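User: Sequence in, structure out. Go.
Assistant: Echoing your sequence, followed by the structure tokens.
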Amino acid sequence: MPHPEPTPPGSAPPGDGLRTLVLGGARSGKSAFAESLLGAGPVRYLATAIPDPADTDFADRIAAHRARRPADWTVLDGADPADVLHNPHPGPTLVDDIGTWLTARLDARAAWDAPRGTITPDTDALVAAVAEYPGRLVLVTPEVGLGVIPATRSGRLFRDEIGTLNQRLAQVCDEAYFVLAGLPMRLK
């Protein structure tokens, strides 16, 4: 089935219901590209990471993201987009990123060694919330399927779960981009 022509980046007014998925590898520039799609306005930023105070490297990464964002953005740290997206926002909403959200859900359900499908209720809720969201929404997510098969069960579980989730999110989003070496490529 052909897809409608995607809206050019930055041309959609805030609150228009356009849903965009931005995929990319680690340090690909996907977050900066996603932020560039938002334009002006009261941006709501759902930061899904749950920082570990003992992990100073991760804290430095979070600080770099915070320093790049405009001061007037509303930031919800440790946010669960499956819950937050049930409350529309007057301006655009950015979720960064789905991979850290997925990790938190796997942790919360102690699903790393559980049978596959343990987090299906969580992923179903997220996909439904994205599909039903009425405002401008940009989702950032890692693409992890370009490398070798992970040697550990947890690595394979994460790769499989994020791959399936990314496919489902791409289906409910209006447009999708893949960012490689800071260069965005439109997929849809």
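User: And one key feature?
Assistant: Residues 153-172 form the longest helix (20 residues).
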